[in-house]
Write a structure and sequence with these properties.
CATH class of the largest domain: Alpha Beta
Radius of gyration: 23 Å
Strand order of the largest sheet: 1-5-4-2-3-6
Number of domains: 4
CATH architecture of the largest domain: 3-Layer(aba) Sandwich
Structural class: alpha/beta
Largest sheet: 6 strands, mixed
Oligomer: single chain
Strand content: 15-25%
Number of strands: 20
């Protein structure tokens, strides 16, 4: 092994760790990451030999990275239980099923080839949040490693255990014809089997494993992938189309007419469907999600509460856990289902199952179900450049300004601001359900701006113009990546 340890500190992200392999991290760096994670697990569990579930995705180099990671973990005293080729949710599930102390999943999710990374967690169903990532970074870069004597064993046939768990409790009565697209990523050996198992007629699209990703990256937010699913839905006269990301924790949905349904709207349809059976439930959504949850008649009639929370799968997952919410929905396609529907973590296949149960229950086409929701005019996510060392201060200025405008009852497009939420930047709402959001991007030198109005496209644009004017006044804003 190369004695020279290469590990770029910027690879430690808010919720996981990602690097370009051999450019930003080498095998010795991966081994040190394992030593850091093992030391962190021991410090947090007070166990000399904690049991750690390890898995890897289907990239050409993921297995060799997993071997180096395991060496590091074992050197601290961790007992490895290797479940082999996995999806991230399969590894999370294994922690519950095998009652282990922690998880480490080698995956770069939907990132291009060349990238690698690790998703990890200690408390069951929760992955590292910023606090744990900072702690891990500190231990790893300063080499504050614990020394111990670990071990390793292979857990055979665990893929089937994971599949059976999702199949047995989710059978459907109506035959649903589903396009299942996996972009040649790891979900290809899981999603078709599970959806067939619950009773769907499955038409596979790019489900054979191919680590070169010959057509497009497995990413349900990728327009190329969504376009291919839409074509397949129309060609096969399918009821629904699903697109899964590289490690299977997200899903994108295409309706029977070939239209993409944004994940926040899918979340609302699922929440409505669940609320009739699970009255008095809580749902958690991120601040970029549609304002329809707040005023939804079905949810209100079933006495359900919606909590808007910080964007980021780790934040929503934790909030679902602490609030004992039934489910959580993030606009990026991470959905979280708590007991009795799941174990609280994000699982794209379980999310697709919930859409199938919705179709089974409603007995209508997806395009008709979506028509039951009020029309809203929503902007894309817009990202104006703002330096990393200035973006949080700019957001603080905007929070103060908008709070002042609300308190003074200043009119914006002939409306007053009725509510301000500041858990993640500032989301401000009006009486008619229109809203605007400004927050700092968690991983880029930019801000995030979103607006929505159930009233008109003009109002959506007026709210954006109001935000943009405030931002330009700070003198710290550059070009937008896209604008309405």
């Amino acid at each position: 092994m190369d004695d020279r340890v290469l590990i770029d500190k910027f690879g430690f992200r808010e919720y996981d760790a990602r690097w370009i392999y051999e450019k930003d991290i080498n095998k010795a760096g991966i081994e040190n990451l394992g030593k850091g994670l093992g030391s962190q697990i021991i410090n947090n569990t007070n166990k000399k030999n904690p049991r750690v579930i390890v898995g890897h995705d289907y990239r050409s180099y993921s297995e060799e990275i997993k071997i180096a990671l395991k060496e590091g973990l074992k050197s601290t005293g961790c007992k490895i239980e290797d479940v082999g080729l996995s999806l991230s949710p399969m590894v999370y599930f294994a922690q519950f099923k095998l009652e282990a102390d922690a998880v480490a999943m080698v995956t770069a999710s939907h990132n291009e080839n060349g990238w690698t990374g690790v998703k990890m967690g200690i408390k069951k169903g929760l992955t590292h949040a910023p606090e744990e990532m900072n702690e891990l970074k500190e231990i790893t870069l300063n080499q504050k490693f614990i020394s111990g004597d670990g071990s390793e064993k292979l857990i055979k046939d665990f893929q089937q255990v994971y599949k059976d768990d999702l199949i047995k409790k989710n059978k459907i009565n109506k035959k649903i014809k589903a396009i299942v697209a996996c972009g040649n990523g790891t979900a290809g050996i899981f999603a078709p089997d599970i959806l067939r198992g619950i009773g769907c007629e499955v038409i596979e699209l790019d489900c054979n494993l191919d680590w070169t990703f010959p057509k497009y990256n497995p990413n349900p937010e990728d327009l190329e992938m969504l376009h291919e699913i839409a074509k397949a839905v129309k060609k096969n006269n399918a009821d629904i189309g699903f697109g899964f990301d590289g490690d299977g924790d997200r899903v994108g949905v295409i309706d029977d007419t070939g239209n993409e349904i944004f994940s926040d709207k899918i979340g609302l349809l699922i929440a409505r469907n669940l609320s009739t059976k699970h009255k008095n439930s809580k749902f958690v959504v991120d601040v970029k999600s549609t304002g329809l949850y707040n005023k939804d008649e079905v949810l209100l009639n079933n006495n359900c509460e919606t909590i808007y929370w910080k964007t980021g799968h780790s934040h929503i997952k934790r909030k679902v856990n602490t609030e004992k919410a039934l489910a959580g929905f993030e606009k990026s396609g991470h959905f979280f289902f708590n007991q009795p529907l799941g174990y609280g973590y994000d699982d794209g296949i379980n999310s697709a199952i919930q859409v199938c149960l919705l179709l089974d229950n409603q007995g209508k086409k997806m395009s008709d179900i979506i028509k039951d929701l009020p029309v809203t005019y929503q902007s894309p996510t817009m990202a104006p450049f703002c330096r990393d060392d200035e973006k949080y201060e700019v957001v603080n200025q905007i929070v103060k300004k908008i709070t002042e405008i609300m308190n003074n009852k200043t009119l914006i497009d002939e409306q007053v601001i009725t509510e301000v939420i500041t858990v993640n930047g500032v989301r401000f709402s009006f009486d008619d359900g229109s809203w605007g959001l400004v927050r700092a991007s968690s991983n880029k030198p930019s801000l995030v701006v979103v607006t929505e109005s159930p009233t008109s496209d003009i109002r959506k644009k007026k709210i954006f113009e109001f935000i943009d004017k405030l931002l330009q006044k700070t003198g710290k804003i550059g070009e937008y990546d896209q604008k309405i």
